[in-house]
Design a protein that fits this description.
By secondary structure, the chain is mostly beta strands. 0% of the residues lie in helices and 50% in strands. It has a 21-stranded parallel beta sheet that branches. The mean pLDDT is 96.
Length: 202
Amino acid sequence: RNLTLNGGGGSIGACGNDLDIDSGEGGVLTAFALGDIDINEVSGDLRVDAAISFGAVNLMALAGSIVDGNEGSGPNVSGASSILIAGGSIGAARDSLDTSVGGLEARAFEGGIWIDNTVDLIIGGLSELEGVSASGDVVIVNLGSILVEENVSGANVVLKAVESAGGNEDITIGDGAVVTGGGVVQLLAGDDFLLSEGGVVD
């Protein structure tokens, strides 16, 4: 069943006290709020049509994956920042989760992470989760710069800042941040690649 949640000028759920939902098999989530959105899917995959906020959009699905539920018609997640946690995968190799967020942390315990983002992105610095990690591949494609402030790890890791006429498509690995892959690590900057003195690519 499809769920539509409207928090109006307030929030949906709260940090540390997520709103628990059960969208059922094939159900799709749509959520709007001026404040933060904190939602936990308790059964199976969380299929996201659109979760849109002026604050944070934090989604969890420990019993499944967080996947694109709108077949390409706009971002699945739009907000100032997002924390995404899934027992399976986040996005899919053939259908990335579409986001428009300035800050990101993500964890996929038994799968990969595939995200297409549309604004300058900072990885890390949001919570105790620390950066982005997956047991499978991590592929983040961004229309803008990427600043890695906390660790990024996966079976293979691809971070891509897509080149455009506007410039500013840098990838920066911050001091103390480690980007590591069990296989291949690709850092594809549209403009400059910057490795801070304490940053590591392994």
